[in-house]
Design brief:
mainly alpha; 8 helices; 3 strands
Amino acid sequence: MEQENKEKLTEQEKAVLNRTLNLMMEFKKCHSAETIDTLAEGERGILFQLFLHPEGLLSGELSKLTQVGTGRIANALKHLEKDGLVERKKEEKDHRKVLVLLTPKGKKKMEKIRQVIQEQQILLIREIGVEKLNIFLDEAEQIAKACIHVMQTLNGKEEDENV
């Protein structure tokens, strides 16, 4: 089926497909957080979500927010806990549930990461300009919505969303 779709592409569509893939690779090169720490991307995502939720999150909630499986979340949490960046506490209402929280060390690390990323974003805004970036962001938001719609359609979830 995938081969059929590729054969039906026009030359213009093939060129856009190639540009899209190349652009995705270029954006990966400017992933700023990799220069800040030695955390894996999934670990950084967990810390980011905990930074946004200072009240803590259950591991299942972390799994949904980061779109990472619960097994991988558990492994990452072990590593982050060993490094003193997160702590796990049994929830008071239901001792079967474990709440994950940032430690003071984890908060300090995330504040540093946030600061470096913000400085890089300011430089980017100044280099490209607010007007051009807003135009790009408007287009990117439309593309993201279309991507989500396409993925939901491919996964047969479109009907579920409309019910």
